[in-house]
């Protein structure tokens, strides 16, 4: 294992039957090594917070506490700014180094609910503050939190996040509450546009805070995504002649289908960009043609990444498979890889179900939602699994899914976490 970056590759099967093509799924895990696990790049972070009248009571109280908790996790090399918006926009904390946490928390405690939800000026002012400390050696982000429908033009907010993308400042978009009139698709669209992707691509970071008690966890997840240890990372799977890449998915920290453009002939190229302290996991599916008995090198997995002050570094792993006439041996599979294949399939089912429901095919949507929910419950993701089963029941009985539950499924359904007690990579099952 590298002291900088650990690259681990597991194959769903390493023993393949002779005389037939075989689909082999690679689980590629990238995690910081010992030298990087406790270091990170400094932050340049702006919070753009809705404090309109609908944020009153427990919502605004828990939001204040979560913001103060984030401040506790920052250090004196980090830069923080805070914008609050209702019908007007106010720069509560101009961009400043986090040297006086007590003073910053007093500012946060002064936030009160009032007014409407004029969103675009808040994003614009947030970008202005972040732009004061833009630096390749910093991780620059805006976190936008809202619980209501924007009362200004949505196109104005779209324009502002596109401007943020032009400055390489992603916007993390959080929708607060299940019953509010904020639009989950619009929130996701803003996040997508802020990373230079098409609206609806689900490449940006968007999340849902269903209730006040969930605020702290969602904010902590957002902060964890900014704990960056390496930049400009790229993963490449080099395949030998005859081996074909079929599809590629990111599996951790969120599930997303990677664009077909990453499948380039005999190479699968995955631009990763930033790697945070928790690392990332990918699944790449290969078709390996029939061979005579014996071993072959089917592919090589390479990762390059940049660590400030150390330049571009590289790690690689060879993928060796064995063709055998032993049928029981060829049926053995790696259970850890199969776990993640099933998790990605549940995500596919959930996504397809929402598409079918939107087109009026509630019967098949119900089947897929229930199947995905049962899979997730078996995998230990009980809350999300129950949400999907509840959505299937609502669709069956009412022909639709309640708004709050729909938001939860759309924005939380692709979030994943590492196995708490993963199977031994050598574990196989026939």
Estimate the strand proportion: 25-35%
Named CATH architecture of the largest domain: 3-Layer(aba) Sandwich
* CATH homologous superfamily descriptor of the largest domain: von Willebrand factor, type A domain
Q: Total number of helical segments? A: 11
Low-confidence stretches: 420-430
Domain count: 3
For the termini, the CA-CA separation is: 30 Å
Across the major sheet, the strand order is 2-17-16-10-14-13
Overall form: globular
In percent, how helical is the residue content? 25-40%
Spatial extent as radius of gyration: 23 Å
**Name of the top-level CATH class of the largest domain:** Alpha Beta
- CATH topology assignment of the largest domain: Rossmann fold
N-to-C series of helices and strands: EEEEHEEHHEHEHEHEEEEEEEEHEHHHHE
Count all strands and give the number. Answer: 19
Report the major sheet: 6 strands, mixed
What is the structural class? alpha/beta
Mean pLDDT: 91
């Amino acid at each position: 294992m590298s002291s900088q970056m650990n690259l681990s590759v597991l194959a769903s099967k390493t023993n393949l039957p002779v005389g037939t093509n075989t689909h082999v799924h690679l689980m590629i895990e990238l995690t910081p090594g010992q030298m990087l696990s406790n270091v990170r790049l400094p932050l340049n972070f702006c919070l753009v917070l809705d404090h309109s009248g609908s944020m009153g009571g427990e919502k605004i109280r828990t939001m204040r506490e979560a913001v103060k908790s984030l401040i506790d996790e920052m250090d004196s090399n980090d830069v923080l700014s805070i914008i609050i918006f209702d019908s007007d926009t106010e720069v509560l904390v101009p961009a400043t180094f986090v040297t006086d946490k007590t003073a910053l928390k007093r500012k946060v405690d002064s936030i009160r609910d009032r007014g409407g939800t004029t969103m675009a000026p808040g994003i614009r002012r947030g970008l202005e503050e972040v732009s004061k400390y833009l630096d390749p050696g910093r991780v620059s982000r805006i976190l936008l939190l809202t619980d209501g429908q924007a009362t200004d033009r949505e196109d104005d907010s779209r324009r502002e996040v596109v401007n943020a993308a032009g400055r390489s400042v992603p916007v993390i978009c959080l929708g607060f509450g299940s019953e509010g009139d904020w639009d989950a698709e619009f929130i996701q669209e803003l996040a997508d546009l802020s990373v230079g992707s098409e609206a609806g691509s689900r490449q940006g970071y968007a999340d849902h805070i269903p209730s006040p008690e969930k605020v702290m966890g969602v904010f902590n997840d957002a902060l964890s995504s900014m704990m960056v240890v390496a930049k400009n990372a790229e993963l490449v799977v080099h395949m030998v002649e005859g081996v074909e890449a079929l599809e590629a998915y990111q599996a951790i920290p969120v599930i997303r289908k990677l664009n077909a453009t990453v499948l380039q002939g005999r190479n699968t190229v995955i631009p990763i960009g930033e790697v945070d302290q928790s690392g990332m996991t990918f699944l790449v599916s290969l078709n390996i043609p029939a061979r005579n008995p014996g071993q072959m090198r089917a592919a090589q997995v390479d990762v390059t990444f940049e660590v400030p002050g150390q330049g571009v570094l590289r790690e690689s792993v060879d993928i060796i498979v064995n063709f055998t006439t032993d049928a029981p041996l060829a049926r053995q599979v790696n259970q850890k890889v199969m776990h993640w294949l099933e998790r990605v399939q549940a995500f596919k089912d959930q996504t397809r179900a929402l598409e079918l429901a939107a087109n009026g095919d509630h019967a098949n949507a119900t089947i897929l939602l229930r199947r995905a929910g049962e899979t997730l419950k078996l995998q230990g993701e009980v809350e999300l699994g129950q949400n999907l089963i509840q959505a299937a029941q609502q669709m069956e009985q009412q022909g639709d899914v309640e708004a709050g539950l729909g938001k939860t499924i759309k924005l939380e359904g692709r979030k994943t976490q590492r196995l708490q007690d993963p199977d031994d990579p050598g574990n196989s099952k026939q």
